[in-house]
């Protein structure tokens, strides 16, 4: 039986996913040609990697094994993952380490702001592990990072990709008060798959978080994303779209689920590109201002360009009134 080993921290004997280590191996489908990407080897990738290392930062690009890391880091785009590299949950799709996290690093907001400035980012994405161990789920730390970036790089637009802050009263208010430009929280999958794919979360709590953000600040762009290929039905995906529109979410991303290891949830199906195009058309028809749907779409992929387009769509709509 294989054991998934943490190769990031240097503790070779410690399982990266202790809660998954004793699960039976899952089948792994062969990837089709449309899902393959080149290994990152460019000078731009190496430069971004060095800045991340110099500031002792974690990125979801590395921790989650994002297939777009070569492209994004070559362009000096990175999604910083704050509050450590260890998550308090054990989602079946996720490659981030699971366990008891350490204390928050009070210097982290300054380090993130420094890296943002050195990379010259016009748009930065800040995400995190789940921190159910904290009274506010880490909301105040998110706010501190936003304020630090604003102070160091006032022209940089900021997107946050937050946890669900489940049972953390006031967390949404704390993050929104720091005035990010985009508030993103991913649903990840359809409701019927939560028990097996995202067991620590609650679907309607996530919907309510996105709705609450809009209630606090109707002008704040909201965003959410799901993966397909986990065994969901098409009508379930369409229902998720309706639920997100009912919460007034502006931007939807849909991408192919990729299995990090044989201990994770298996890929049930590789969805072909033409089906993504069809889902994108339906989502636009349902009223989303922006939709990104393709096999390699991820929440933070092309986030800066997408934010500019989203803002242009809204500005154009206001001008036409």
Output the keywords.
11 helices; alpha/beta; two-stranded parallel sheet; 10 strands; 36% helix; disordered N terminus
Query: Proportion of β residues?
Result: 5-15%
Number of strands: 10
Describe the main β-sheet briefly.
Answer: 8 strands, mixed
How does the overall form come out from the CA principal axes?
Answer: globular
Mean pLDDT: 86
Radius of gyration computed on alpha carbons? 19 Å
Element-by-element helix/strand order: HEHHEEEHEHEHEHHEHEHEH
Span of the ends, CA to CA:
63 Å
Estimated helix fraction: 25-40%
Strand order of the largest sheet: 1-2-5-6-7-8-9-10
Number of helices: 11
The class by helix and strand makeup works out as alpha/beta
Low-confidence stretches: 1-13
Structural write-up:
This protein is α/β, with parallel strands linked by helices and 321 residues long. It has eleven helices and ten strands. Strand 5, helix 5 and strand 6 form a beta-alpha-beta unit. The longest helix is centred in the last third of the chain and has 17 residues, at 303-319. The termini are far apart.
Any chance you could write out the topology, listing elements then pairs?
Elements (H helix, E strand, L loop, with lengths): L42 H12 L3 E2 H4 L5 H6 L4 E4 L3 E2 L9 E2 L9 H12 L3 E6 L10 H14 L4 E5 L9 H7 L4 E3 L9 H4 L5 H14 L4 E8 L5 H13 L4 E6 L16 H13 L4 E4 L9 H17 L2
Parallel strand pairs: 2-5, 3-4, 5-6, 6-7, 7-8, 8-9, 9-10
Antiparallel strand pairs: 1-2
């Amino acid at each position: 039986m294989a054991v998934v080993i943490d190769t990031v921290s240097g503790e070779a004997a410690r399982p990266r996913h202790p809660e998954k280590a004793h699960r039976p191996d899952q089948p792994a489908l062969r990837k089709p040609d449309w899902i393959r990407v080149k290994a990152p080897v460019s000078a731009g990738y190496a430069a971004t990697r060095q800045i991340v290392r110099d500031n002792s930062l974690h990125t979801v690009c590395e921790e989650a094994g994002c297939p777009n890391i070569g492209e994004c880091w070559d362009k000096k785009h990175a999604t910083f993952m704050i509050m450590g590299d260890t998550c308090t949950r054990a989602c079946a799709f996720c490659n981030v380490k699971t366990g008891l996290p350490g204390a928050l690093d009070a210097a982290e907001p300054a380090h993130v702001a420094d890296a943002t400035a050195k990379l010259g980012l016009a748009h930065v994405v800040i995400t995190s592990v789940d921190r159910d161990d904290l009274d506010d789920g880490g909301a105040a730390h998110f706010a501190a990072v936003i304020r630090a970036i604003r102070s160091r790089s006032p022209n940089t637009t900021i997107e946050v990709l937050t946890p669900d802050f489940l049972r953390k009263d006031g967390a949404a208010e704390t993050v929104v008060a720091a005035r990010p430009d985009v508030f993103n929280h991913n649903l990840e999958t359809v409701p019927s798959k939560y028990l097996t794919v995202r067991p620590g979360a609650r679907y309607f709590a996530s919907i309510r978080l996105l709705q609450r953000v809009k209630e606090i600040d109707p002008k704040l762009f909201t965003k959410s994303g799901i993966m397909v290929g986990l065994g969901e039905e098409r009508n379930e995906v369409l229902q998720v779209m309706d639920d997100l529109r009912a919460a007034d979410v502006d931007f939807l991303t849909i991408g192919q689920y990729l299995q990090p290891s044989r201990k994770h949830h298996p890929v049930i199906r590789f969805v072909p590109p033409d089906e993504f195009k069809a889902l994108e058309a339906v989502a636009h028809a349902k009223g989303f201002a922006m939709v990104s749907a393709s096999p390699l779409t991820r929440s933070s992929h092309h986030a800066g360009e997408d934010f500019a387009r989203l803002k242009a769509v809204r500005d154009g709509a206001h001008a036409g009134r």
